[in-house]
Hints:
The chain has 7 helices and 14 strands. The protein is an alpha/beta fold. The chain has one domain (2-245): Metallo-beta-lactamase, Chain A. The strands form 2 sheets. A 7-stranded mixed beta sheet has the order 6-5-4-3-2-1-14. Strands 7-8-9-10-11-12-13 form a 7-stranded mixed beta sheet, with helices on one face. The longest helix has 13 residues, at 68-80.
Amino acid sequence: MELTVLGRHGPFPAPGGACSGYLLRAGQAALLLDLGPGTLSRLLAIAPQLDLDCVILSHLHSDHISDMFVLRYALRQFAERGLRPTLPMPVIAPDEPKEEYRLLTASGVFDLASSADGLQLRIRDARIRLNRVTHPVPTYAVSVEHEGKRFVYTGDTGARADLAELCYGADLLLADANFLDEENPGPSAPHLSAGQAGQLAADAWVKRLLCTHIRGALCDTDRLIAQARRRFPGAELAEELAVYQI
Ligand SMILES: [Zn+2]
């Protein structure tokens, strides 16, 4: 598999950066995971025909979906000119909040299926599993397996007891690390702190950890990655436009 980070920020981008969006190629399958602000232009740079098999939205907050509302224009005009892809584009997303879900369905460009906890599906030769995590709106972590390798994206989530099991043994874990440890508001937090992301990687015995969902220019990224590395020495910050082999 191969992961390209289109954007690593949330809930707003750093100057010149983009919010959450990731392109995962698993064999013949091209899966887009989230499409936050600034990510569509980067997607078009590496997949100019938008030949995706499926879009999977972890949740319906704007920092993960806003470019979907621009993607619909691109898809429609590509289709009108007989270019790939054919419409509608398959999208898997939580069906709440209702207003955001309705906006996605209203265009007719997307063929939406609702996320569900434990949902498993196969797209070409990729095996995909969704698991509910903890965030103010319904949110799902995404696991993808292909040829014996496993990738897990936590989506946005606070700490929860079953996260380590969900991430266990991943070859690459892409984890929410939104807070510095001292900023963590406590058990009801909607995101992991850097230290919690590192601890998760250690507890789950993952092989590689990428920290993501960085708070724009407000984040001291040197401090953040140092806190993650106290628990998981190999922790890395996700780098925008970097390509990671899995
Ligand atoms: Zn977010």
